[in-house]
Amino acid sequence: MRPVNAATLFTPPEAAYATFGEAAPARNRVRFLAVGLFAMLLLLAGRAVQLAFAGDPLAEPRPVAVAATTRADIVDRNGVLLVTTVRAYALTATPSRVWNGEETADALHRIFPELDRAATVRRLGDTSRQLVYLRRSLSEEDRANVHALGLAGIGFEAEDRRIYPQGAMAGHTLGFTDVDLNPLAGVERGLDRQIREAGAAGRAVRLSLDVRMQYALETELDASARAAGASSAAGILLDARTGEALALASWPRFDPNDAGAASDNSRRDHVAGDVHELGSTIKPFTVAMALQEEVTTSGELFVVSQPFELDGTIIQDHEPIAGITSLRDILARSSNIGAARLALRLGGARQRAYLERLGLTQATRLELGFNEAPLAPHARGRRDVAGLGFGYGLAATPAALAGAYTVFANRGALVAPTLIARAPDAEVERTQVFTPEVTRQVLAYMRAAVVDGTGRAADVPGLAVAGKTGTAEKLGEESVYDDSRNFSSFAGVFPAHDPRYVIVVALDDTGEGAAGGMVAAPVVARTLRRIAPMLGLRVEPGAPAR
Amino acid sequence: MDKALLRRGAYAVAALIIVALVIGLYKAKTDAARTEAHVRQLQRQIEESEADMRALRAEIAAQESPARIEALAENHLGVVVGSAGAALPENAIEQRLPAPRAPEASE
Question: Where exactly are the structural domains of chain B?
């Protein structure tokens, strides 16, 4: 409305009528505004009534936030659960509310004998702190037991805990976490990022392991390591075509559910975390290098009956081979002299290049928390080159050796081992090291080593294992090789007519005379006998169990 | 008079609308809070159920572990897996598995 002023008050009637005539549109505008506001209020009221009585906006479908654990489950290639996260409880105390610290500590000590009583009393009396943690990762049963005590000031906080339902099986491979679920070892650490991502996405991480094969390998390795008095042992079974590790066994075993109770040696992974001079299991590569570089032929004959002196060092065979011998017998009967001569023909540079391409001079890339790097110094003279030819002067892990043996199952191409299950159509990276012809030739020699050579105990009738034994003396005090302490191993592929799988078994610190053919090869035979049906391979039914 | 009546009527309607608005808003907020609490409770139940399921899956995996199955098979069915006990003793390998050719193979 326009303001009324003096001019308006003293306006003559005609003029006043004119002013009233002008006010009519203004009143209309006010009415329109009022009607508009009223309509808006009606709309709001209607919507409010609708919301209040007719519909529930929160009842509309909305994505439910399903609680995702921070770490994913880990399963084997067949979906068998290996690691999961379960609910656990942390035992807490509010010191200001604890009536009697000593009595409370005594009561708790009866349930948890490993609880340090003096430290508990001290912590319960520390009233400067609002909350103290007394124990972590308790089970529901522990919680119920403590609740039953009715202790004042004692409470619980819910938390997550990793558990390993298979117990000690594959403990080294799976690894473990601390109470805060920080990864400390194994794939828990090696695949930490993937495990967290999978956990956030609500899916599991699938490993290439097969618990059935893992169990068979571990059981046989355990029995043999105990019988041989070994200080440690390792076994690995690979699908060489894809590089997938089907079983990865380390001995002594430990239970990751109680990793803190295990000794350092038990917790140590001897498959990828421990390096050794490999001994004669290197010889198939020496022969393959020599054939590949055409410094010998399959028809060449050798005389290796006499010890071989090289720069003041005598190279000799454990049991001399009399007369003339062939390349086949050099490998089948594990002649150090023959392998040394072939290595010398090759020369240090070419030998090194092959060892590098075989992955024996770098740490493996298995998805574990720790892969030990090999000790692979460059050969400094002819003696070193000769020694490398029969497995001395290069210390690598059994995992690296298994990776190198994939060349015998892939027509000369190397496939890196992995612990992650691959999709059937996944592309596999291959590095050609030897030609298929050379590989086939060496494979025949390796088969001879099992049929009538040092690896006879690895033979499984019907399965056609091809491989090589290794017995490396260990360095003793004053860096002198000690023939009473051996690293005994067997590395091979099967079935020999169309190899697909690689198996390596190694026992450390076996006694004098405990050669690879005596202690490691039988483990291979017994393991393969058990797992062959799982791989769809047939063994002769009537053959005796060994 | 009509105008005054109209105005009073308008005031009454406006007051009713405001009251309806206040009541409606209160009810909507109360229902929303109740529903939210219900959703939170359901989420807690889901978490509890998932935790129980994980614990049960772990228990199943432990019950189905090869070691336990093997022990049960041996104890109840008499099925014996080829084991170290059935293996050739190490000191008998040379005697039982002699090299087919002379001289005897060496390491």
Answer: 2-80
